[in-house]
Design a protein that fits this description.
Elements (H helix, E strand, L loop, with lengths): L1 E11 L3 H10 L5 E4 L16 E2 L8 H11 L6 H21 L5 E2 L2 E2 L12 E2 L6 H14 L4 E4 L3 E8 L2 E9 L4 E12 L20 H8 L4 E2 L4 E8 L11 H5 L3 E3 L19 H15 L4 E4 L5 H7 L1 H9 L7 E11 L2 E3 L11 E3 L4 E2 L11 H19 L21 H18 L3 E2 L1 H17 L7 H22 L8 E2 L11 E5 L6 E4 L5
Parallel strand pairs: 1-2, 1-10, 2-7, 10-17, 16-18, 19-20
Antiparallel strand pairs: 3-6, 4-5, 8-9, 9-10, 11-16, 11-21, 12-15, 13-14, 14-15, 21-22
Helix pairs in contact: 1-4, 1-10, 2-3, 3-10, 5-13, 11-12, 11-13, 12-13
Length: 526
């Protein structure tokens, strides 16, 4: 069965970026949100630490900007960072005026400290459940809004693009075997990142870079895909079960120790445990390699346990459920966490295809550089999500929609088991050959193996599992080819065979369908 819908604003994704933008867009027209799973399944929902913004007189946008540039390893563009830090406080005010309640202390906003920040500027809600509280708040606003329609369990398998313009998207629901065509004046990609392509990840299993594959197929530019941020502190268990141990825990004073009882970050960076994430993750990785260990310890036994219980109730319970007392020490190891690069966008979240916008983790706005500063991601969702809607609302659109070939997806259940087996194989390959530290031989081996997987799979045209596998392989290839071309170590990209920062790579990698990878210079304020 196939149905059609029309709207003014089609928003693909239901994380913070999509939900916030949808609520703002509803002031100007009819909004449709399509989301891959349920409305509450997103990276935003699992964000623990909080949202970084200047809300204190002893802080300033200039300080926030400086911290962002330092963490970004030389690849942050000046204009988007300047926009983020100056418009961010206004977006926080917007949320508060909508009714969002952040944690307070003695009548004032509580502000935490996280890695890479020199000021306490991290706002949180529910202690360590900021993302969950934000998403719950915006979901209720969304469901109460009669101008927004939410359609769940939709795999978006094609963007409707012609002559450099986007007119909507095609989606498929594998649960009831239905196809949907949504035409829209403007389409917005807010589909999150790709870190769930790795075996060890903090992301929900749906976060496999669908947005990258979709956009790339239509000639949209993607940028800096070699940079994947591995969160330094994800819970370690022998069963493989993992979850994020928020950076805010280190912000409250937790230390990192190896199994020998050595606090190893003191000699690595002036901020020790609060160094930028790429430095902490690599330091942990080196400790694990040098000592042939699977994990190190995040130690809290020197801190006030009452404060820990009050500040991190969710983490405390999750650790306890797995037999670990968080108030003492927690076994941790790095895990793939955040896609730093993404779809290349302008200050107004435009792509190089008209009427197609992108924001949130899926976008490469120029803010994150080579390594995201902690808790800038939720703020980026708000700032560029609103800018996208404002820009789109001012644009004139082509009232004549072109005809598109009738493509409908179907599902072959016989391919499911083989598909899942290949997904697991790819996850292991990515962890082992394009992990925290990579080299030319491993990357080349990965590219060749991905091609073999594609050849060996019984692909069917317009079939659900075939489409998902092709998308996954495309995303992995894009990442691998960018990593191969960047012959240096910077931020979230570390090459053992080029273990240095090179001025010749002070540039963004750009990939476009059917074109060679190219590098473009970073924008500065000169």
């Amino acid at each position: 069965m196939s149905t059609e819908k029309e709207c003014d604003f089609l928003i693909i994704g239901s994380g913070l970026a999509g939900l916030y933008a949808a609520n703002y867009a509803s002031k100007f027209g009819r909004v449709v949100i399509v989301t891959k799973a349920k409305i509450n399944v997103s990276n935003s929902y699992y964000a623990q630490g909080g949202i970084a913004a200047v809300t204190n007189p002893d802080d300033s946008p200039d300080f926030h900007q400086e911290d962002t540039f330092i963490a970004g390893g030389g690849l942050c563009d000046f204009s988007p960072v300047n926009t983020l830090v100056n418009e961010g406080p206004e977006r926080i005010k917007d949320l508060i005026e909508m009714g969002m309640q952040f944690d307070t202390f003695e009548g004032h906003l509580s502000r935490g400290l996280e890695g890479g920040h020199h000021k306490r500027r991290i706002l949180h809600a529910g202690g360590d459940s900021t993302g969950k509280e934000l998403i719950k708040f915006l979901i209720q606003k969304t469901l109460d809004n009669k101008k927004i329609e939410v359609i769940e369990n939709q795999l978006v398998y094609k963007l409707l693009c012609k002559n450099g313009q986007c007119f909507g998207a095609l989606t498929y629901n594998n649960i009831d075997n239905t196809n949907l065509k949504v035409t829209a004046k403007n389409t917005f990609l807010a589909m999150g990142g790709a870190s769930a392509i790795y075996r060890r990840t903090t992301n929900p299993e749906t976060t496999v870079g669908d947005g990258i594959a979709l956009a790339f197929a239509e000639g949209v530019e993607v940028e800096d895909m070699e940079f994947i941020q591995f969160h330094p502190t994800a819970f370690y268990s022998k069963t493989g079960e993992t979850f994020l141990i928020s950076e805010a825990v280190r912000g409250e004073g937790a230390y990192l120790y190896n199994k020998k009882g050595e606090r190893f970050m003191l000699n690595k960076h002036e901020l020790a445990e609060l160094a930028p994430r790429d430095i902490v993750a690599r330091s942990i990785f080196e400790q694990m390699q040098d000592n042939n260990d699977d994990y190190v310890y995040l130690t809290l036994d020197h801190l006030d346990s009452n404060i820990i219980k009050q500040r991190f109730p969710t983490l405390l319970k999750r650790c306890a459920d797995l037999g670990v007392d968080m108030c003492k020490r927690v076994p941790i190891a790095p895990a793939a966490h955040y896609m730093v690069g993404g779809v290349r966008t302008s200050l107004d979240a435009e792509t190089n295809v008209s009427n197609l916008y992108c924001f949130g983790e899926l976008a490469s706005s120029g803010v994150m550089g080579a390594n995201r500063l902690a808790s800038n991601s939720l703020l980026e969702c708000l700032v560029f999500g609103k800018r996208a809607i404002i820009h789109a609302n001012k644009q004139s659109t082509n009232s004549t929609k072109p005809e598109f070939n009738s493509i409908k997806l179907h599902s072959n259940p016989e391919l499911e088991e083989k598909f899942l087996s290949q997904v697991n194989q790819i996850a292991d390959l990515m962890n082992n050959q394009l992990g925290i530290v990579r080299c030319q031989k491993e990357i080349c081996d990965l590219i060749n193996t991905l091609e073999s997987i594609k050849k060996d799979f019984p692909l069917e045209d317009n079939e659900y599992y075939s489409t998902r596998l092709l998308n996954l392989l495309q995303v992995c290839n894009i990442m691998a080819k960018a990593a191969l071309q960047r012959e240096e170590s910077r931020g979230g990209h570390i090459r053992s065979d080029f273990d240095h920062v090179s001025k010749s790579f002070l540039a963004h990698s750009i990939q476009t369908k059917d074109k060679d990878l190219r590098f473009v210079p970073v924008e500065n304020n000169q």
